[in-house]
Design a protein that fits this description.
heterodimer; A: about 110 residues; mainly beta; seven-stranded mixed beta sheet; four-stranded antiparallel beta sheet; about 50% strand; B: about 110 residues; five-stranded antiparallel beta sheet
């Protein structure tokens, strides 16, 4: 069975640009969450979506937005990119919105020049 | 605010040398404590979920335990392929959504 898939795997942008990252959850999983992982740190929660609705948001500015589609795939958008946005962006999926384990993709490595 | 502290930051072991990794946490009502393994350039790989104090889970050379304040990941007779960063995360009851709060991880290196 396919795990969580993310695209692209790597991306290079310049300051001020906008970026869209994509995630396909494990088949049957309805919850998708996004995390940002800076080098040497643990992942930090950005958003959770369940059944196409935003369930929660972490401490990130409004430049970060996301959505979930009817097939449960998801997109993360970041506007007006800053150097500090350089990180590994991870998508995780789970069966439901409660305390079930989240399974992660291998992420998108975003570099801002 | 929920917090997770992992120690040590890095650990070097010889193959076969058993040890333990520590995860101390503070949370407003624990929904679950999760252990993940992360290899360089990869996403975290799920290992265990623990829900209540006293619970234990095992998988091959790994055993996770949970108390009201901390969790331990015991590694018995490790092999070089166990080298990775081990992440601990908690999910608290103070949010209505599924948010994991991670520690900074323990980098484990097992030498042959």
């Amino acid at each position: 069975d396919a795990g969580v898939t993310q695209s692209p795997t790597h991306l290079i942008k310049t300051r001020g640009q906008q970026v869209t990252l994509r995630c396909s959850p494990i088949s049957g999983h309805k919850s998708v969450s996004w995390y940002q992982q800076v080098l040497g740190q643990g992942p930090q929660f950005i958003f959770q979506y369940y059944e196409k609705e935003e369930r929660g948001r972490g401490n990130f500015p409004d430049r970060f937005s996301a959505r979930q589609f009817p097939n449960y795939s998801s997109e993360l958008n970041v506007n007006a990119l800053l150097l500090g946005d350089s990180a590994l962006y991870l998508c995780a999926s789970s069966w439901d919105s409660n305390n079930q384990p989240q399974h992660f993709g291998d992420g998108t490595r975003l570099s801002i020049l | 605010e929920d917090q997770v502290t992992q120690s040590p930051e890095a650990l070097r072991l010889q193959e076969g040398e058993s040890s333990s990794l520590n995860c101390s946490y503070t949370v407003s009502g624990l929904r679950g404590l999760f252990w993940y393994r992360q290899d360089p350039g990869k996403g975290p790989e799920f290992l265990f979920t623990l829900y209540s104090a006293g619970e234990e889970k095992e998988k091959e050379r790994l055993k996770a335990t949970l108390t009201k304040k901390e969790s331990f990941l015991h590694i018995t007779a490790p092999k070089p392929e166990d080298s990775a960063t081990y992440l601990c995360a908690v999910q608290g009851r103070n949010t209505g959504f599924q948010k994991l709060v991670f520690g900074t991880g323990t980098r484990l290196l097992v030498s042959p």
